[in-house]
Design a protein that fits this description.
Length: 399
């Protein structure tokens, strides 16, 4: 069979290749600590399961293509509480933030087009862009500058006649960068001035550690035509398996185009939307504050532990639950194989996500890793200690 160019250019998850080595390490009796997976261990609120159990219909029918009314209204009211009034027809229910991306990208990207994305970026963006036939033009950043990218002089020279959109994650995965109000304004201004769509992936919105309230690019009503927001209940309510998200935009034409794909896939899951609506309705400010506090404790534990590891370089994350760390090694992938095959400390070792998979350009990020801090502070402290011991053993082995 001949497979399409587009699909052949896509890669499998860069993390997958370590799985057999993890299984082998565990078969030897090692305990493998995980800093590599973005699956939070925080409990999904009971409200989700209660609503699913109380679902009164006798037929689990298709939902309307744009979404179940109670879900759309709950999302609308959630945004109103944040201070961003939107109407239900500016929301499309999707299978997580992932499907929102898979719907919005083909609306604006054709073969040969380009989309600007700050690098390092969430690796699935690469797949979603490649299947449209377009290409990512990375906005380069550096570890030394804390991966900040909202800089006119850096972005504007990358815009050309093929550029159609800018895609950002705010708060950032994998960097933990959160844009300042001025940086948010700048990103919107650039999109508006160059007639581009700014796609703002805000699935980590509430997980921010500064004083600023959770934000959205929807605040810029003067640039309403140029903004689309990708949202999800996955991280907000620790409900990754529910697969409920949203594509939000005040650009009516864009939403009209997106509706074609929504109708084509018939609907997002009816029951999951109903249960997600209960989360939006029932979880109050105390819930969001509690989740944020929990991640802050985890972030503080990781930062304190990393400060004890010699010669690593990192910036303290401002949001989401990830950070990039530059290691004093030649190659973070080789170190990962070493940690799984040759290293252990008291029967334990550690996994992370090697940095290269987050870059568009081969060779970049070779001595960087992404850490996801989604377990409890004690485990995180031990995981980072193992990383430090592993680096020492790896570097002394080579000398
Ligand atoms: C930046 C970012 N966007 C989107 C997603 C997709 O999440 P979901 O499809 O579960 O909403 C993820 C998941 O990890 C993510 O990190």
């Amino acid at each position: 069979m001949k497979f399409s160019h587009k699909i052949q250019q896509c890669g499998l998850s860069p993390m997958r290749k370590f799985y057999p080595y993890e299984v082998a390490a565990e078969a030897k009796g090692l305990r493998v600590h995980h800093l590599n997976i973005g699956q939070p261990d925080i409990e999904t609120p009971r409200a989700f399961f209660d609503a699913a159990r109380d679902f009164g219909e006798t037929v689990l029918a298709y939902a309307p293509a744009p979404g179940v009314e109670v879900y759309l209204e709950a999302v609308r009211d959630y945004y109103a509480r944040l201070g961003y009034p939107i109407t239900c027809d500016e929301i499309l229910a999707t299978y997580g933030g992932s499907e929102a991306l898979q719907i919005v990208l083909p609306c604006v990207l054709d073969e040969g087009d380009e989309i600007l994305i700050p690098e390092p970026f969430y690796p699935n963006y690469d797949t979603f862009v490649r299947v449209t036939g377009a290409a990512i033009r990375p906005i380069p950043t550096s570890a030394e500058e804390g991966y900040r990218y909202a800089d006119r002089a850096r972005i504007e020279p990358l815009i050309n006649e093929h550029t159609r959109a800018i895609l950002i994650t705010n708060p950032g995965n994998p960097t933990g960068v959160v844009l300042t109000p001025e940086e948010r304004r700048l990103m919107v201004d650039i999109a508006k001035e160059h007639d581009l769509l700014l796609i703002s992936d805000e699935v980590y919105r509430e997980i921010v550690y500064g004083d600023e309230a959770p934000s959205s690019m929807l605040e810029f009503t003067d640039a309403a035509e140029n903004v689309a927001v990708v949202d999800s209940i996955s991280k907000r309510f620790s409900a990754t398996g529910a697969r409920v998200g949203a594509l939000i935009s005040r650009n009516k034409e864009l939403m009209g185009q997106a509706m074609k794909l929504c109708q084509g896939r018939l609907c997002a899951a009816t029951l999951d939307q109903v249960a997600a609506a209960a989360l939006y309705r029932k979880m109050d400010a105390a819930y969001y504050a509690g989740v944020r506090e929990e991640y802050r404790r985890r972030k503080d534990a990781v930062v304190a532990a990393l400060n004890r590891v010699p010669n690593v370089q990192f910036s303290e994350p401002e949001g989401a639950f990830y950070l990039m760390v530059t290691l004093p090694v030649d190659d973070a992938e080789k170190l990962q194989y070493f940690l799984l095959e040759e290293f252990q400390d008291q029967g334990e070792t550690v996994m992370y996500a090697p940095g290269e998979g987050f870059y568009g350009e081969p060779g970049k990020g070779r001595n960087e890793i992404r850490i996801a801090y989604v377990t409890n502070p004690d485990d995180l402290t031990r995981s980072i200690e193992l990383l430090g011991l592993g680096i020492r053993a790896y570097n002394s082995r080579k000398q």
